[in-house]
Design brief:
This protein is α/β, with parallel strands linked by helices. The chain has helices at 16-29, 47-54, 80-85, 96-101, 106-118, 131-135, 139-154, 180-195, 199-204, 215-222, 239-248, and strands at residues 4-9, 36-41, 60-63, 90-93, 122-127, 163-166, 206-210, 229-232. Helix 1 runs parallel beside helix 11 and helix 7 runs parallel beside helix 8 (180-195). The radius of gyration is 17 Å and the shape is globular. The structure holds 2-phosphoglycolic acid (PGA).
């Protein structure tokens, strides 16, 4: 049995005062969640705050992006080792917003995945198709291509202990969720794609679904055979809602 995992992706939201409240509520409510791993991925400036508030708790944390370089003259960038200095366990890699708004290519995403692994972080690799790609029947090809770019550069062994999140772009922040059947179909295809290279790695990998996950739809999504939890954006900013999503992963 794979451990369930729910990760909050705060995106560019929050401030020091609200974060404190949210984190305190999460920690207070965590015992109700049961046997589910929980983490939050926060903006860089709040990593120190999150570290100090979560260090003595079972809730893990991480960042939403990193540089593909280890160090050097890269103004404005943040390395994997720097994230390690702030106790990060996770880092999101290749979120569709980074791909679409900041021009991150499959190649760059793969390099970031490698940088995260090299520093001992757990990359959460995001893949997913746009609405146009889904409507033209391209979902499987697009997702396979995004995966292969990372598999080819990093090697399948690097996926042991990594996380893949399937996030259909048309479901992110739109209130439109993939149906449990649609999501399961892609998750199963992702697992098979990895199993083609290494069945053991594929069987142990946590695959998350993301895209308008709410307390009300989380249960049936997380009940699918190849869905091991969620990557949650908007709903992770509201403690009760996020905790209810985490609880739904425990069934
Ligand atoms: P959403 O975002 O839950 O607000 O749709 C998910 C994500 O982009 O990670």
């Amino acid at each position: 049995m794979r451990q369930k995992l729910v990760v909050g992706n705060w995106k560019m939201h929050g401030n020091a005062a609200d974060n404190r409240q949210l984190l305190q509520s999460l920690v207070a409510g965590y015992p109700s969640v049961g046997d589910v791993s929980v983490a939050v991925c926060v903006p860089f400036p709040y990593l120190a705050q999150v570290q100090s508030l979560l260090a003595a708790t079972p809730v893990a944390w991480g960042a939403q992006n990193l540089s593909e370089h280890a160090q050097g003259a890269y103004t404005g960038e943040v390395s994997a080792a720097m994230l390690g200095d702030f106790g990060c366990r996770y880092v999101i890699v290749g979120h569709s917003e980074r791909r679409a708004l900041y021009g991150e290519t499959d190649r760059l995403v793969a390099a970031k995945f490698v940088a995260a692994k090299a520093a001992g972080l757990v990359p959460i690799l995001c893949v997913g198709e746009t609405l146009a790609q889904r409507e033209s029947g391209d979902t499987a090809r697009v997702v396979a291509g995004q995966l292969d770019a990372v598999l080819d550069l990093a090697g399948v062994a690097a996926f042991a202990g990594a996380v893949v999140a399937y996030e259909p772009v048309w479901a992110i922040g739109t209130g439109r969720t993939a149906s449990p059947v649609q999501a399961q179909e892609v998750h199963a295809a992702i697992r098979v794609r990895i199993a083609d290279r290494d069945a053991w790695v594929a069987a142990g990998m946590q695959l998350l679904y993301g895209g308008s996950v709410k307390a009300q739809n989380a249960g049936e999504i997380f009940a699918q055979a190849d869905i091991d939890g969620g990557l949650v954006g908007g709903a992770s900013l509201v403690a009760d809602e996020f905790l209810a999503i985490c609880q739904a992963a425990n069934r």
